[in-house]
User: Which sequence fits this backbone?
């Protein structure tokens, strides 16, 4: 049985847990070699074990996504080994603190923007030449409905996701005449640690497991997925385009 991503190289950030882990497993299951990054080395090791059980392969890169020079070094290492990158998944993200905008601590603000926006800019900057070397480079970045709903007290998170979407759409427009396609994926309410910290009274068993959500996001990484500059959302009935 032919796997849909056989022979392709995929970079996934925040891959040690939650949706990032599920995405890494899904891409590996479909034949991609996964370059998995996260701060937690133990989580990456467990991921590698599970990828091997699926018959897949991975390269582990323990790194803090805020170490921007490390992102540049990673791009150089990928070029040295594979000469290209077929799939970029910008999954790493932080919630920050739920508080009025006027009460946000400057350090917390900078941290949320660094992880949710600037790190993804640095990924685009470093991986763009590699994506262009692919016959069908695909970049998918995790966003949220909060980029548009703008609930009270969710300021840094909402603002960072709105900025991310603007950046990805801009990049997509610049890639329109190339073989690279860039989109955002909104997983919605998912059974993750981030969701639990934001909604502590919610029953997690009422939410979809990250594995279910990851399958739809992984479909956006396939060469046949030709949309560009869209915001796509998980739905139990099937992936659909929001914007």
Assistant:
């Amino acid at each position: 049985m032919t796997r849909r991503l056989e022979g392709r190289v995929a970079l996934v950030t925040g891959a040690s847990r939650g949706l990032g882990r599920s995405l890494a497993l899904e891409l590996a299951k479909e034949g991609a070699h996964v370059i998995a990054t996260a701060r937690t080395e133990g989580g990456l090791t467990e991921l590698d074990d599970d990828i091997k059980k699926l018959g897949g392969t991975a390269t582990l890169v323990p790194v803090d996504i805020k170490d921007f020079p490390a992102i540049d070094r990673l791009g150089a290492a990928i070029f040295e080994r594979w000469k290209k990158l077929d799939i970029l998944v910008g999954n790493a993200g932080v919630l920050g603190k739920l508080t009025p905008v006027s009460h946000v601590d400057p350090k917390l603000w900078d941290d949320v923007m660094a992880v949710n926006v600037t790190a993804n800019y640095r990924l685009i900057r470093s991986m763009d030449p590699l994506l262009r070397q692919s016959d069908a480079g695909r970049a998918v970045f995790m966003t949220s409905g909060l980029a548009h709903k703008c609930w009270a007290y969710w300021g840094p998170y909402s603002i960072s996701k709105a900025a991310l979407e603007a950046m990805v759409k801009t990049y997509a427009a610049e890639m329109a005449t190339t073989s690279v396609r860039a989109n955002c994926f909104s997983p919605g309410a998912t059974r993750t640690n981030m969701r639990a910290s934001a909604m502590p009274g919610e029953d997690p068993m009422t939410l979809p497991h990250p594995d279910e959500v990851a399958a739809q996001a992984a479909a956006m990484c396939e060469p046949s997925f030709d949309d560009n500059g869209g915001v796509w959302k998980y739905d139990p009935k099937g992936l659909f385009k929001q914007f």
